[in-house]
Amino acid sequence: MSRTPTRAFHGERSNAAISWLALAVVLFIGARALLDGLVHEVLFAATVATVALVPVIALGSKQAALPWEVTAIAILPLLAAVFAPDLWSRQLVLYAGAAAIALALTLEVHALTEVRLERWLAVSFVTMLTAAIAATWAMLTWAQDLVAGTGILANNTQLMWLLITATAAGLFAGVCFDLYYRRFPGEELVSAPVEGVDEDVFATKADIDGRPPLEERLPFSERAQGGLVWALRLGMVAILVYGVTTLDTGAISNATAMLAVTFVPTVLRRRYDIPFDSGLVLWITLVVFLHAIGSFYIYDRSFWWHNITHPLSATLVGGLGYIAIRTLDEHRDEIHLPSELTPGFIVVFVLAFGVFWEIGEFGFDVVAGVTGLEMPLAQHGLDDTMTDIVFNTIGAIVVARWGLPYLTDVTDAVTDRLEGWWILGE
């Protein structure tokens, strides 16, 4: 049988020895970087060391290791950064190297868990994981700058190019991952635990069933919840009317879009019998209302309003990610995400979505600067971008930790309604 990376954890002494040697090099460079105050090198070395130790800890064997080729690729950016001429070039090399770490971690997920991903989804996952790693490094570096008064992240433009570099490298790594597997016809991206290790060791069932719906957890009646939904909609209508009377195109477009979103659950419930309870409808409406108010008046006058709306929006994005992966898991035999890994996937999905969103806003800024046109989205400096990413992460953790039970009924209904759709077929 062909020896694909998912079948690579066989504990050969030579492979393990090379991997441990590579880890020793990483720790040495990381320790020197720590003494020299090189934050990005420290973060990269710590991330590589963590990923390298995963199979050792999971399997309880010092000989469990990734293929040495994968380990070598993962540490190459760190070695290259040692010879980079300046801080900016070192940062670019290391952020591009996040893709190699994401690729190694993806291989471990396949080898040590019951995860199954079709190749197109594996490419997407490597890209998302790379963006999430880059966002995490950026948050830690920004925190270091705030606490120590350093300027490692010089400005928003440099930050965005770091995130763009990481995302592009992640996409490239994902495509390479796919092309490599084409060399092994008949081998799918399936779990292949080390011989003698029971797959059931890695599988648990998440307790998300039998929870009361959100409408029952709120401290007021279903009727009152419906009344609040309509009150918030009327608020958005007022913003729309103001925009029309003052010819404010920004207010018109934002209010119209946000108002339309509030009716999506109602349409889905009536047309497809998707069980959106009044609590979920209120939650969605509140989130878009706060965004509408912010775009209309508060965003330009207050730095903290973003810190409220971004974690709330992140909960909606996380919910969409949960519904998507559950639907694919249900209808595609080649795709499976164990329930105990779902919260981690949600966090990665939201972090990556936040990076893609910030890249989009940066693109709008570039277009506005070239054309002089007013764009619907814009960035307002390094602190604005970083607080967006930080609070997106908070929202992702909240929905991954506490919000999934409230989406179970909706998700089950969506998977039932999509039965037989061609896009989900074989």
TrEMBL record:
<feature type="transmembrane region" description="Helical">
    <location>
        <begin position="120"/>
        <end position="140"/>
    </location>
</feature>
<dbReference type="InterPro" id="IPR014509">
    <property type="entry name" value="YjdF-like"/>
</dbReference>
<feature type="transmembrane region" description="Helical">
    <location>
        <begin position="337"/>
        <end position="357"/>
    </location>
</feature>
<feature type="transmembrane region" description="Helical">
    <location>
        <begin position="43"/>
        <end position="61"/>
    </location>
</feature>
<feature type="transmembrane region" description="Helical">
    <location>
        <begin position="227"/>
        <end position="245"/>
    </location>
</feature>
<keyword id="KW-0812">Transmembrane</keyword>
<feature type="transmembrane region" description="Helical">
    <location>
        <begin position="160"/>
        <end position="181"/>
    </location>
</feature>
<protein>
    <submittedName>
        <fullName>Uncharacterized protein</fullName>
    </submittedName>
</protein>
<feature type="transmembrane region" description="Helical">
    <location>
        <begin position="280"/>
        <end position="298"/>
    </location>
</feature>
<feature type="transmembrane region" description="Helical">
    <location>
        <begin position="94"/>
        <end position="113"/>
    </location>
</feature>
<feature type="transmembrane region" description="Helical">
    <location>
        <begin position="304"/>
        <end position="325"/>
    </location>
</feature>
<dbReference type="Pfam" id="PF09997">
    <property type="entry name" value="DUF2238"/>
</dbReference>
<feature type="transmembrane region" description="Helical">
    <location>
        <begin position="68"/>
        <end position="88"/>
    </location>
</feature>
<keyword id="KW-0472">Membrane</keyword>
<keyword id="KW-1133">Transmembrane helix</keyword>
